């Protein structure tokens, strides 16, 4: 049943090996110079631009094959924070980092981030702060990748350029209810700590676009069995619900990529996420970065603050 998946991924991996090798060489030069958050001023106005700080994991950092990757955190120049800053003419401190958990934002240093938590980069005069987090706390994407490895690539586990496939093919156990409650508590703690550091900032909690919608067929880009699809939906819904509760508790604005992205799943005609392919499976595509950026911009523009895919937690 999964032979079509095998054939497509086999061809993709051969072509991607050279790309993955080149990426290592390229980023090896950049890493030494870019271990700190990227600071970018994009306003042409004579007035001081508003200061925007982006916090979060790879869904905010935006790693991808077509984009210039900056440093060990794998930030890209066209991730949604950069696009928001460019559109609204804000000065950006991009503190996002691939692999980050909520604790890496709050109080646990991350090696890729220079051995310090992201919150250290939040200045008191920040005007806007976005936070995208929680997926790595639950092993959400790692589980998806490992499921794909087990389904279609058993003979390639030792040589595939999809790094996670080399870690084994058994996905993590499904999170229990306590795990979602812990993620919610951690998000609340992050928001409260950010608010203490930047009391006048507008804080937006930006959730994740979905990989798959319940009841929809899979495709070669999503080599999951029916029970794995059902599990993926459960975990995603649990994460989205925890994020919404954290926004409600703290009164920050929730930007619902989970809702807007429902029409842009991996197997849709206009996906916001990459499929099961190197170098970064199941992460925002070029269209996905643009789509989430537009949602954030909508939430920040006063006349559009009540956009259908955003809501205030207050």
List the helices and strands and how they pair.
Layout: H1 3-31, E1 38-41, E2 51-56, H2 58-61, E3 69-70, E4 75-76, H3 80-88, E5 91-94, H4 102-106, E6 128-132, H5 140-152, H6 177-197, E7 202-206, H7 226-250, E8 253-255, H8 257-260, H9 286-300, E9 310-312
What general form does the structure show?
globular
Reported for the largest beta sheet, the result is: 7 strands, mixed
Radius of gyration: 19 Å
- Structural class of the helix and strand makeup? alpha/beta
**H/E element order:** HEEHEEHEHEHHEHEHHE
Low-confidence stretches: 1-35, 42-46
Assign the CATH class.
Answer: Alpha Beta
The CATH homologous superfamily is called SGNH hydrolase
Named CATH topology: Rossmann fold
Verbal overview:
The protein has one domain: SGNH hydrolase (Rossmann fold, 3-Layer(aba) Sandwich), CATH 3.40.50. Helix content is 40%, strand content 11%. It has a seven-stranded mixed sheet with strand order 1-5-2-6-7-8-9, sandwiched between helices. It has a two-stranded antiparallel ribbon with strand order 3-4.
